[in-house]
Write a structure and sequence with these properties.
Aminopeptidase; 7-stranded mixed beta sheet; binds coenzyme A
């Protein structure tokens, strides 16, 4: 588990003014561009600079932690872990997320476990055609993970 953040950051709810930078940060990391609405985001700031974002998406009763991005020069200082903890406190558990293979170890360290096969909430899965394109053409595996307690 992570020690508390070593960076001097504050966390706050996003405002409408944050929407352009939220979208830029999501796009710059090629994350899911759907449902990127400032109302659902928390912001990590260092001074007056936005250094991290993350949100809760709702799929019916399923809650998804999404759009987690930390500015490259601020990584490795606990900003991501602080955002995850704050989003968990805001949304409650169980909390699901979707990630690529390279991020599975990161979320495992934060207490998430992979959900496989039919246990994956259908509401979270991308449309069948998009899933086929991502997994067969781009050769990326989409992992769904959950933290239950
Ligand atoms: C993933 C991300 C949010 C982590 O943010 P962060 O602020 O650097 O994370 P933390 O500081 O809380 O944790 C850093 C620790 O996690 C480790 N870590 C970071 N990414 C990792 C990964 N993909 N797999 C395993 N460990 C990882 C670091 O090595 C570091 O370990 P240490 O504490 O032993 O030094 C950040 O790297 C990022 O923005 N990545 C690009 C966007 C992205 O992939 N978002 C996730 C979408 S599902």
């Amino acid at each position: 588990m992570y020690s508390p953040t070593s960076a001097e950051i504050t966390l706050r709810r996003a405002t409408e003014d944050d929407q352009p930078i939220i979208r830029r940060m999501v796009t710059s990391e090629c994350l899911n561009p759907r449902d990127v609405h400032w109302q659902n985001f928390l912001i990590a700031e260092s001074g007056d600079r936005i250094v991290g974002i993350g949100q809760i998406r709702l799929h019916g009763t399923i809650k998804e932690l999404g759009s987690l991005v930390v500015a490259p020069e601020m990584r490795g200082q606990g900003v991501g872990a602080a955002l995850v903890a704050a989003l968990e406190a805001r949304a409650g558990l169980p909390l699901y997320l979707m990630c690529g293979s390279h991020n599975v170890p990161y979320y495992t360290r934060l207490g998430y476990r992979e959900v496989l096969g039919d246990a994956r909430p259908a509401a979270m899965l991308p449309p069948r055609a998009l899933l086929w394109f991502v997994e067969r053409v781009l050769r990326l595996t989409i992992h769904i993970m959950v933290k239950e307690r």
